């Protein structure tokens, strides 16, 4: 099932994405937030073009990023692959949804795109063994771990470089029925392909990441894990359009604008 978060001008609501008899994409509106209650339909249906999609989840707690989790990406930045998952946190205020602008901060002159598969946690989870990991995952979505590369190097830590407002686009929806073992992850900027990898190339797979992270942090419903980015990261500029696609999920597109 694909779960979208959307608005028609009122408070955000959730819907199951599907097609009607004519093949038009529609949203079957849900009761409440499916992360915190069982999925129930209201009976209302809306056409996708009539709504504005929002980030499918706004983490109430945390976003956990995983650095250098593709060997080719580590190599392109002159780094060795880490011996264990390399973790960092992004604030929930960095989250935006489909078609919302990535704002380039005045503090940086070298902001990069990073296409990633994101994992959305569905229940409270602590010290989860890898054979139980699927029990705590609600679903998967596309992510762009936007990074101010110059600040990352200058600060010698990653909080500011990866934490600016708008630096965590998520969407377009959550796919709840997906095998993350071997999915294509791509990024296009203005239609030109920049990144093309597969989750089978992850140094630490999804099960390993959830097991490792939950041994350190209690994971809460709505927490998001960014699994890492393949090689090909590069700068984005005002006026660009960035599209992250993950096989089996869809495309997350965002324009890039300069700070006002």
From TrEMBL:
Which GO biological-process labels does this protein carry? carboxylic acid metabolic process
Q: Which residues form the Rv2993c-like N-terminal domain?
A: 1-56
Q: Where is the Fumarylacetoacetase-like C-terminal domain?
A: 62-257
Q: Which UniProt keywords apply?
A: Hydrolase, Metal-binding
- InterPro entries annotated for this entry? Fumarylacetoacetase-like_C, Fumarylacetoacetase_C_sf, Rv2993c-like_N
Recorded superkingdom: Bacteria
What GO molecular functions are on record for this protein?
Answer: acetylpyruvate hydrolase activity; isomerase activity; metal ion binding
Could you identify this protein by its name? FAA hydrolase family protein
Supply the source organism's classification.
Bacteria, Bacillati, Actinomycetota, Actinomycetes, Jiangellales
